[in-house]
Amino acid sequence: MNNTTSIVSILLAGILTNNMVLSKFLGICPFLGVSKKVNTAFSMSIAVTLVMVIATAVTWPIYTYLLYPNFTYLETVVFILVIAAIVQLIEVFLKKFIKPIYNALGIYLPLITTNCAVLGITMLNITDELNFVQSLFNALGAGLGFMLAMILFAGVRSKLDTADIPEFLKGLPITLIAAALVALSFLGFAGIGG
Amino acid sequence: MKKSKNLSILTNGIIKENPTLRLVLGTCPTLAVTTAAINGIGMGVAATIVLVCSNAVISLLRNFIPDKVRIPAFITVIAGFVSVVQMLVKAFAPAIDESLGIFLPLIVVNCIILARAEMFASKNPVLPSILDGLGMGIGFTATLTLMGAIRELLGAGTIFSLPVTSEFIDPMIIFLLPPGGFFVFGILVALSNALAKKQGKPIVEHLGCANCPSRGACQNAVLDSEEKPAECEKAEAEKAEKTEEVKTVEKVGGSDE
Fold first, then answer.
1. Which of A44, A135, B3, B187 is 20 to 30 A away from residue A106, measured at CA?
2. Which residues of chain A register pLDDT less than 70?
3. Separation CA A11–CA A2 (nearest Å)
4. Which residues of chain A have a CB within 8 Å of the CB of B189?
5. Distance, in angstroms, between A179 CA and closest chain B CA?
6. Per-domain residue ranges for chain A?
7. pLDDT score, position B230
8. For position A103, what pLDDT does the model report?
């Protein structure tokens, strides 16, 4: 009972209160770069969620059984290399066996290696001292939160195209200010799930 | 002559190609750690050390790293230096380590460092690469400190923890929260665009593939078809110029006949 409530609250926290992009500032590059259209935003976030969960499933045992307690200083190096390898493997696997998914997500995969959201979530699982199941749900929640933020923001940006914007704010500045407003709305979730 | 060239490489990163405001790289730490000016300095200095060291090593190895595995190789070099810096900060400045938190190890995926490795250090000798890293690092530190100071002043009424306006104006806490980060960064980019426009330089339009350090590894570098990376356009323009030159040469040749 206690375990299920904690999993629900971890999921809720990942999606709403501790949203990856809007309150932890992880994964800002894809958030600003790939959010021009709703469907590209959706594919990108599916790919990110997939890689996050798989990366957590691999890095958590590596840290807990191999690196802890003597080699914790290798965390950064090992994690980034493991994530790079996982992304490559997923790409090869999808290309060979599940072609339609590869066609939809393939182009986003190389971008994910250097995505700080993936490395960030695997490290946060360790610093927050979550157990294996909690870590997996934390990664899933973070991925879904990333998706929610991306899709909402893609919707906001599509309105910006037709808006009458002051000359000096055109382009990136107005995008950032729109992101500020979306982040402001997410502040309203603070306190839910405690 | 050579000295002035080196100097221009150094200053290039500070103003002309300021990594945060002009190249728009490393946005995550820019937004996340700038809740106080001192955090900006801490983050900036840590990133500068990694940037200078990794640029130097990658430049030395530039003839040995096979082209196909260069991105993983760069990441490994960078991750090594990040671990070193992480341990140093933990040992000598635990307060900075506390406030930077996860963003200290995340320097490893900071786009600025990978981008400079890919765009500069892998093509240039050691000294210019070190200077480039130093210049970019100083530019990054300066922007982060400025942004940290603005947010600290508005959000807490202090700068470097010294009270400035906190005694007679209620601080606006929103500037310390995530929306304030996006907002202040947006305004700073707008200001830098306005300055650039005054000087007739191109303004920063969007984050596109042109800024992405992984685009070398990315087979489909243009994600939105209407967006063309600036460098592609440049290359095309050069190509067009060349073909025009060829044409004019041909014409000249023709008129000689």
1. A135
2. 1-3, 5, 191-194
3. 14
4. 172-173, 176
5. 6
6. 13-193
7. 42
8. 80
